[in-house]
């Protein structure tokens, strides 16, 4: 009977979308300075992430740590509105760090890397016009990767790492139920999950000038088993949204296959071209399975229908002096999201990437690198199939990056 | 090490510098009024236009009226100030319904807010418009929103109307009461742009009274609508008019009363079990709808119809609706099958006569079972039977063709509210919200099942704005619907 008066508040628009285009390509400051290309370059210990097959060709034992201050400025113009709405995302801190060691001039190197290849941090606030679709998102994936790199010959290296993902998600949105004081209800899904995968790479020094790389970082199926499903609604609806409640959800973080090319044009100038193929189509559905269901709170299955997508990255490094290098790069990344599936989490679109970088060898052991990445996402006007949210998105990203390296 | 610190500082500084570069998508609409002039917008209409909600007119409903939402958006394209006769000092206004919870069976529990009302005195009651006989706080400054709850198109030329409707009386000067008809009052406003949504009550009051309040004859409707539109456009004002949704599709009839009907059916079945010889439910049936007054009915026009119990709305193939009065008089259902004249005594008292007169006029026998005997029938005013619904549909169609023709003749923007309400009932997806015509949960209709929530009024405002923009090539921005509340849950 109650159903007559309290329909399914959550039926069509209840499911959260994980941010799309939530891959973070800031896994080494040297590469970031070159539009994030460099699978076929022997850079530093970040090769553990970029290409475990080339780590064995580096000198000695190395450690590096790279940090970023990602400023993603999302704007939205609701269909028919005149005033832009801005997200206030704060500064996201993606990082990458690693250590590798092995016998000098030996046949192998072992290492451990920690990095954040996926994530998102979006906060549109609680009163914007898309509040019923999303108010904020925090998504973190921290990959921990023990790695082994082996020299098959002086020209050919192979490497593999095992990935353990520590994931965290916190999604918040408002619910279209009004409280007695006129405020609106809200929902929050937060939880931690684990996932496993691998990262393999081949490195081949074809000639003195040309090097080739082929790498594959696998899909990492990450499951949140026991996340908190927090619903803040009127007392009269407490039976419809029982508290405490938990949810289960699985997110497939897609694999990335990279073909890399390195070219030493002169003694001072090195160029790199990376082509990434990201297997986004593993993200076809997003499901939330609530532990306690009611007629108003049903499990959800949202179609995502992502498509596999490509990224093209071209970068270069020029040695100004023995110690100082300047870098630059340009890239183009295609969005995996089809029209109708764009949501406010990270409103993705095809993007142009422009980067600059600097490297300085302070002492024989210490080096420092800095880079700056600018991303310009195409303006995209969308009507979301699931939420009906209509409007135009536009995003710029500004990302300074800084890294320290040490050889021992 | 010093270098590292310097680099870090540089990085941070850069970060702060870039914080300010945000993509600007603003649309400059300042000069986008198209071929209309919104500098003085005036809204003409009834309760919907006034922002009536939850069975009352009160401040927060007024503030969310669709004309005030439209006016706020118009201010970006050259619209001027928009004044409403707000209940500012006594925000509870006429009083209103609130939802206090759900019963054990899941039915909504509604309570009336009746404290601190904007009542300033008493006057002669009016059975339809002012049963409590109150006078409300005056608001006699110039206004833009002329929405008067309860007003029919057939009332607009009636000089005496303000004596019957305190919600019209309150916006008149003392000397204008009983003198100035609504049409004259509106004509004085001299709009450059207007909206007009009138005629709903010409149908709704008939439906809500079970056919007792007469429908406005079609020729009279046509004549008055023409006069009204001519008056509004006489100075070259542009405007938007809306037609009438089907009243029987609102929750009042399809949910609230259906629920009462299911209760009524249960009562009837109990009465039948107690006395198997009882015939079917018997209703006294009014004569032709435009002849019947409420207070005196010649005996020869009283016809009796018998309705199968299952024909009551809410089950079976039935089409009969019990009206709102039944919801407000639950004791009526308890009288079913009883040998009682209690209803007729109260009916007589309400109409200033004696029960003997009523018994004689209607040829009643109150020793018979109430609602089961042709001589003690259930009152027609509490039932909207299938025939009456056919009449309503037919009149709505005719009124709507008049409204559309008037809009076309003056080249005005035209909102097809009838079709739009059908879309709402089927369900809309607005900015991440499911909105439907479902009672309470749909978010569109307020607790009275006829008028809208702030969210519903925001959706209606956008429908008007889109229609205006399409007609006059203007770019009035749309309201952000999510910022407006649905039904408030305790």
Report the principal-axis shape of chain A. Answer: elongated
Radius of gyration of chain B: 26 Å
Q: Please bin the fraction of helical residues of chain B.
A: 25-40%
The end-to-end distance of chain B, rounded to whole angstroms, is: 61 Å
Total strand count of chain B, please? 16
Q: Overall pLDDT of chain B, averaged?
A: 84
Shape, principal axes of CA atoms of chain B:
globular
Structure description:
The complex is a heterodimer of chains A (408) and B (490). Chain A is mostly beta strands. In chain A, 3% of the residues lie in helices and 57% in strands. Chain A is built from 3 helices and 21 strands. Chain A has helices spanning 2-5, 29-32, 47-50; strands at residues 62-68, 70-78, 85-86, 91-92, 95-101, 108-123, 136-151, 156-179, 184-205, 210-217, 220-232, 246-253, 256-264, 269-278, 285-290, 300-303, 309-319, 324-333, 351-361, 366-383, 390-407. Chain A has a 14-stranded antiparallel beta barrel with strand order 1-5-6-7-8-9-10-13-14-17-18-19-20-21. Chain A is elongated. The model of chain A is unreliable at 1-20 (pLDDT under 50). Chain B is an alpha/beta fold and 490 residues long. Helices cover 37% and strands 13% of the residues of chain B. Chain B contains 17 helices and 16 strands. In chain B, the strands form 6 sheets. Chain B has a 5-stranded parallel β-sheet with strand order 6-1-7-8-13, with helices on both faces. In chain B, strands 2-3 form a two-stranded antiparallel ribbon. In chain B, strand 2 and strand 3 (108-113) form a beta hairpin. The longest helix of chain B has 24 residues, at 251-274. The N and C termini of chain B lie far apart (61 Å). At the A-B interface, helix 1, strand 2, strand 8, strand 20 and strand 21 of A face helix 1, strand 2, strand 14, strand 15 and helix 17 of B. Strand 8 (156-179) of chain A pairs parallel with strand 16 (488-489) of chain B, so a sheet runs across the interface. Chain A: This is Outer membrane protein transport protein. Chain A: Belongs to the OmpP1/FadL family.
């Amino acid at each position: 009977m109650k159903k007559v008066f309290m329909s399914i508040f959550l039926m069509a628009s209840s499911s959260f979308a994980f941010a799309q285009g939530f891959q973070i390509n800031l896994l080494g400051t040297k590469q970031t300075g070159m539009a994030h290309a460099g699978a076929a370059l022997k850079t530093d210990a970040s090769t553990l992430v970029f290409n475990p097959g080339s780590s064995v060709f580096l000198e000695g034992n190395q450690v590096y740590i790279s940090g970023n201050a990602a400023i993603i400025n999302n704007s939205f113009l609701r269909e028919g509105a005149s005033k832009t709405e801005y997200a206030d995302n704060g500064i996201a801190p993606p990082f990458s760090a690693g250590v590798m060691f092995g016998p000098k001039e030996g046949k192998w190197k072992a290492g451990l890397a920690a990095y954040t290849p996926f994530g998102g941090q979006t906060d549109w606030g609680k009163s914007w016009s898309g509040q019923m679709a999303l108010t904020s998102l925090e998504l973190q994936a921290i990959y921990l990767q023990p790695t082994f790199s082996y020299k098959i010959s002086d020209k050919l290296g192979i490497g593999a790492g095992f990935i353990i993902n520590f994931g965290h998600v916190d999604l918040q949105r408002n619910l279209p139920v009004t409280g007695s004081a006129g405020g609106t209800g809200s929902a929050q899904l937060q939880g931690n999950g684990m996932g496993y995968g691998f990262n393999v790479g081949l490195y081949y020094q074809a000639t003195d000038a040309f090097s080739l790389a082929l790498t594959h970082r696998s899909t990492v199926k990450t499951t949140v088993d026991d996340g908190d499903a927090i619903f803040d609604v009127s007392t009269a609806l407490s039976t419809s949204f029982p508290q405490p409640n938990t949810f289960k959800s699985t997110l497939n973080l897609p694999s990335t296959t990279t073909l890399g090319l390195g070219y030493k044009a002169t003694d001072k100038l090195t160029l790199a071209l990376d082509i990434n193929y990201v297997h986004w189509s593993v993200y076809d559905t997003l499901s939330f399975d609530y532990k306690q269901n009611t007629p108003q709170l049903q499990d959800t299955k949202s179609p995502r229908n992502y498509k596999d997508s490509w990224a093209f990255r071209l970068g270069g490094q020029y040695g100004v002096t023995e110690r100082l290098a300047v870098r630059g790069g340009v890239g183009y990344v295609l969005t995996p999201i089809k029209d109708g599936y764009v949501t406010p989490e990270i409103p993705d679109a095809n993007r142009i990437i422009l980067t600059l970088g600097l490297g300085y060898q302070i002492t024989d052991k210490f080096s420092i690198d800095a880079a700056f990445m600018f991303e310009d996402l195409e303006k995209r006007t969308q009507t979301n199939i699931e939420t009906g949210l209509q409007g135009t998105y536009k995003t710029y990203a500004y990302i300074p990056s800084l890294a320290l390296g040490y050889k021992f | 090490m010093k270098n590292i610190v310097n680099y870090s500082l540089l990085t941070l500084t850069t970060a702060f510098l870039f914080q300010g570069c945000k993509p600007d998508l603003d649309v400059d609409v300042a000069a986008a009024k198209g071929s209309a002039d919104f500098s003085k917008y005036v809204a003409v209409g009834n309760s919907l236009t006034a922002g009536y909600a939850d069975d009352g007119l009160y401040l927060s409903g007024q503030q969310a009226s669709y004309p005030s939402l439209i006016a706020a958006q118009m201010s970006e394209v050259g619209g001027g100030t928009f004044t409403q006769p707000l209940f500012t000092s006594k925000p509870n206004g006429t009083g209103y319904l609130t939802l206090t919870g759900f019963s054990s069976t899941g039915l909504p529990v509604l309570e009336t807010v009746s404290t601190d009302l904007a009542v300033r005195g008493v006057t002669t009651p009016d059975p339809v418009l002012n049963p409590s006989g109150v006078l409300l706080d005056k608001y006699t400054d110039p206004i833009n929103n002329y929405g008067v709850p309860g007003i029919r198109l057939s009332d607009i030329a009636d000089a005496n109307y303000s004596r019957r409707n305190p919600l019209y009386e309150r916006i008149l000067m003392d000397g204008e009461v009983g003198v100035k008809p609504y049409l004259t009052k509106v004509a004085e406003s001299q709009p450059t742009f207007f909206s007009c949504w009138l005629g709903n009550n010409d149908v709704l009051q008939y439906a809500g009274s079970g056919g007792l309040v007469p429908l406005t004859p079609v020729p009279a409707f046509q004549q008055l609508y023409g006069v009204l539109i001519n008056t509004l456009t006489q100075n070259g004002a542009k405007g938007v008019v809306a037609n009438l949704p089907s009243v029987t599709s609102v929750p009042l009839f399809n949910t609230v009363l259906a629920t009462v009907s299911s209760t009524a059916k249960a009562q009837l079945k109990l009465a039948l079990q107690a006395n198997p010889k009882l015939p079917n439910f018997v209703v006294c049936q009014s004569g032709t709808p435009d002849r019947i007054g409420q207070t005196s009915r010649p005996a020869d026009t009283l016809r009796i119809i018998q309705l199968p119990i299952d024909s009551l709305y809410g089950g079976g193939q039935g089409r009969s609706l019990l009206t709102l009065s039944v919801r407000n008089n639950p004791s009526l259902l308890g009288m079913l099958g009883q040998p009682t004249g209690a209803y007729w005594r109260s009916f007589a008292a309400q109409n200033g006569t004696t029960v003997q007169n009523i018994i004689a006029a209607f040829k009643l026998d109150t020793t018979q079972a109430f609602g089961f005997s042709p001589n003690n029938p259930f009152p027609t005013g509490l039932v909207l039977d299938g025939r009456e619904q056919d009449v309503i549909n037919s009149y709505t169609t005719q009124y709507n063709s008049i409204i559309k023709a008037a809009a076309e003749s003056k080249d005005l923007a035209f909102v097809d509210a009838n079709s739009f309400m059908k879309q709402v009932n089927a369900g809309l997806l607005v900015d991440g919200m499911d909105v439907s015509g479902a009672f309470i949960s749909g978010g569109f209709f307020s607790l009275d099942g006829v008028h809208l929530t702030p969210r519903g009024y925001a959706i209606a405002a956008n429908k008007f704005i889109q229609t205006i923009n399409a007609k006059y090539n203007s770019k009035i921005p749309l309201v952000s619907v999510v910022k407006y509340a649905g039904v408030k849950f305790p």
